[in-house]
UniProtKB/TrEMBL annotation:
Keywords on record: ATP-binding, Ligase, Nucleotide-binding, Purine biosynthesis
UniProt protein name: N5-carboxyaminoimidazole ribonucleotide synthase
Keyword Amino-acid biosynthesis found: no
Pathway: Purine metabolism; IMP biosynthesis via de novo pathway; 5-amino-1-(5-phospho-D-ribosyl)imidazole-4-carboxylate from 5-amino-1-(5-phospho-D-ribosyl)imidazole (N5-CAIR route): step 1/2
Encoding gene per record: purK
Assembly description: Homodimer.
EC numbers, comma separated: 6.3.4.18
Length: 383
């Protein structure tokens, strides 16, 4: 069936490798790090920087189609590859997702509501009195932020210049801080023929800016709201002429309105439950879109609750120099419907995504009850 290529060596690439291998493909990963989750799982590991022309040339020569597992891959690398091979997602769409201002412009162009915001890219704009209506607000670096990194809450106009400097004085977006009822995400996949399928709406709980828990079916989302979110995500994929898997994060405001937060041009942490709870996972969809295989609508065959496993779990003591302790997986795996996924990262670090744990069950109440038991065993906060 040939070789497929992936730019990036993280856990998303690793789970793509697994899906591709299950379907009989071999996978080559381009990743500079010697030890990486995807590199270890791949059939071939090309160890070079993502934008190195010789490495891209070798990847294109070896692979029939190429995808990426992270959005900060140089768009030029995708363009170079696309001149020779099928590449998804498209470079233009990835470039939009790399910059919060471009991303919000894309939301607006597609008729998708997003938070009131302004671009701050100079000391003058940071001192502008016209920004008052956006406060209290969240200042976010326009590019390279993830897991809440590169963000600061700003309460008053007087605080803004210092907050901007503290983020490095780089181009930023100031967003109005919105009154959230809850957070959801929608994963769609669009084929080269324009066909769009979607996963069920995911309800997400974040702690400290990092995804902590995903529940599907979304317990607090009425069907009409779910339909609306799915329609908006599909509209975005179409407007971007997108091919591949796209995740759109939404806020549900206190008044019930739906507002897009950001999007990711790839499978998403909130979609990991689909490996165990759907008949077609988000990584299967990525593979199908990339390889030109049929996209069929995934069916949720089990209720699911996913818990993210951060490196903090390996450090039950507070001491800064404590040695890591492996969590009690046996206790977790004694619970019904537990699916443990560890990414094979060399070293546990606080805040680092080490794996995830999905509980499936015939009904949502059972999945939640078992996930809560696991949370208690692991010392995670209840939800
Ligand atoms: P990710 O890892 O999802 O890419 P990120 O670093 O890009 O994270 P955001 O998704 O922009 O960060 O924000 C992280 C979290 O902060 C959101 O999930 C939400 O809980 C909160 N948040 C962000 N923007 C706003 C806002 N405008 N109003 C209220 N809360 C917000
Ligand atoms: Mg983000
Ligand atoms: Mg986010």
């Amino acid at each position: 069936q040939g070789m497929l290529g992936v730019l990036g060596g993280g856990q998303l690439g690793r789970m793509f490798v697994h899906a591709a291998q299950t379907h009989g493909y071999r996978v080559m990963v381009l990743e500079p790090d010697a030890a990486s989750p995807a590199g270890a799982a791949a059939d071939a590991h090309l160890r070079a920087p993502y934008a190195e022309p010789a490495a891209l040339s070798e990847l294109a020569a070896a692979c029939v189609a190429i995808t990426t597992e992270f959005e900060n891959v140089p768009a030029e690398a995708l363009r170079m590859l696309a001149a020779r091979r099928r590449v998804s997602p498209p470079a233009d769409a990835v470039q939009v997702c790399q910059h919060r201002a471009r991303e919000k412009a894309a939301f607006a162009a597609a008729g998708v509501p997003c938070a009131p915001h302004a671009v701050i890219d100079s000391a003058e704009t940071a001192a502008s009195a016209a920004l008052a209506p956006l406060l209290p607000g969240i200042l976010k670096t326009a590019s390279l932020g993830y897991d809440g990194k590169g963000q600061a809450t700003v309460m008053t106009l007087a605080d803004l210049p210092a907050a901007w400097q503290a983020l490095g004085g780089v181009p930023c977006v100031l967003e109005q801080r919105l009154p959230l009822r809850l957070e959801i995400s929608v994963i769609v996949a669009r084929g080269a023929d324009g066909a769009v399928v979607h996963l069920p709406v995911q309800q997400n709980l974040h702690r400290g800016g990092i995804l902590a828990v995903t529940q599907v079916p979304a317990p607090d989302v009425p069907p009409a709201l779910a339909e609306q979110a799915i329609a908006l995500a599909g509209r975005l994929a179409q407007a971007l002429d997108y091919v591949g898997v796209l995740c759109v994060e939404f806020f549900v405001l206190q008044d019930g309105r739906l507002v897009a937060n950001e999007m990711a041009p790839r499978p998403h942490n909130s979609g990991h439950y689909s490996i165990d709870a759907c008949d077609v996972s988000q990584f299967d969809l990525q593979l199908r879109a990339l390889a030109g295989l049929p996209l069929v609508a995934p069916r949720l065959h089990s209720a699911a609750v996913m818990l993210n496993l951060l490196g903090d779990l390996w450090f039950p003591q507070d001491a800064a120099d404590a040695a890591p302790v492996t969590p009690d997986w046996a206790a977790v795996l004694s619970l019904p419907g537990a699916h443990l996924h560890l990414y094979g990262k060399a070293e546990a670090r606080r805040g680092r995504k080490m794996g995830h744990l999905t509980f499936t069950a015939a009904d949502a109440g059972t999945a939640r009850a078992n996930a809560l038991r696991a949370a208690a065993v692991l010392g995670l906060q209840a939800f």
